[in-house]
Design a protein that fits this description.
The structure holds two protein chains of two kinds. Chain A is of the alpha+beta class. Chain A is built from two helices and nine strands; from the N terminus they run H-E-E-E-E-H-E-E-E-E-E. Chain B has one domain: Porin (Beta Barrel). Helices cover 11% and strands 45% of the residues of chain B. The chains are: A alpha+beta, B mainly beta.
Amino acid sequence: MKKLMFLVGAIGLVFNLSAQKIFTKKGIVKFTASSSAEPIAGKTNTASSVIDKTSGNLEFAILVKSIKFDKALMEEHFNENYMESNKFPKATFKGKIANLADINWSKDGKYTAKISGDLTIHGVTKPITSNADLVVKNGKVDANTKFNIEVADYNIEIPSLVKDKIAKTAKIEVIASYENLK
Amino acid sequence: MKKIYTFILVACGFIVVNAQDDMLSLLGEEKTIDYATASFKTTRIINTLSIENNSKGVLDFKINHRFGPLNGGFYDLFGIDQAFIRFGFEYGLTDRLNIGVGRNSYEKVYDGFLKYKILRQSTGARNMPISLSYAATMDYKTAKTSDIAYLSRDWLRAYYTHQLLIARKFGEGTTVQLMPTLVHRNYVKTKAEKNDVYLIGIGARQKLSKRIAVNVEYFYNLPNQLSSAYVNSLSIGFDIETGGHVFQLFFTNSSGTDTRNVLTETTGKWSNGDIRFGFNVSRVFTVYKPKNLDN
């Protein structure tokens, strides 16, 4: 009995450690806030993310300074004037796949995940929801989602002098390829 | 037995809770190098070069305006009647190497410089307390004078300035820059004046808001190098940034706009109100895009 219990516990422990998690450290996040005046677009390819396949929990984080722009000065102003990236170095998302039952992680195919959670940008946390396309193939998962955020929601000030040059709604696209976390 | 069972259960539970709380910590934190950026709003503090470089492929068009002395009074509309201008281009060959050329209307001086960033202030994976640049400037005077000796040889009209720019950004808004400087003048009028002039410069900037900063710049000439007519240059001004433009509005006791004039031929005295209002306008253009944003 003693041995059996121990075995059950040990199996549980091992199971939890491997925990059915998938991850990426090379997620791509693109953002555009272009106006008619000029294109404003940035991109990072070092986003990190972990999804727990059993619970549906999902986390995502990017270093704001890793977002690159075409124009060096735009990048400087993005960090210095808008995102204040020394004060708020990371943008994060913590959420859940709401329709976890619809996704069969062990069967290749295309799924739509309904994701909801909290997005933290510039130190401000707001709830968001978005649909993501998941492609499961050979145990790997490719994810893609697009959503919009209101710049003003995150206390990012756009001074009146440049308010026509920057869109009030920023479009965000996320592309990530997940692998098993060992 | 019960104890072991409970222990394992708690251990499992703990790991599960822990994992759900912050799953990203499982990936481990990769240390990145965090460079200090935007130590100054533009590549000039006021008259002198700042530690800031134009990034690779960025062209900076600069117009520097300098009016007459304030103590000219109402008759000269406090100096507005008189104006000198420098216009110039600066370009980032690489993120570290910048070059520039300009033309100064005061004494018809052509100038050119190169500036190389040797060290970059950083934290994180690499700690570097300061940024360090070397700057070499050449000024070439073309104004006609009655000085026969001066006119006899072309090379007598050239001035060379070597500077080390040692800068540190303290926190978000404060930057201090030290500038050990050597000006070599090929020609001086009297023996008392030195061909090589050593100076210590100090510049500082304090941000007042995200887009406005106050700048100060001072050059101390070591004693017994210049004719007594010349004094140390002191300038105080504001930077106002509006997207692609930076406007600098300032007061200075230097009448010229080129380096050798500011460093070795400043005549105005702050105590007499012999100071001038000036403004610099900087506009940057991205000529070449080195970063690949495509997939």
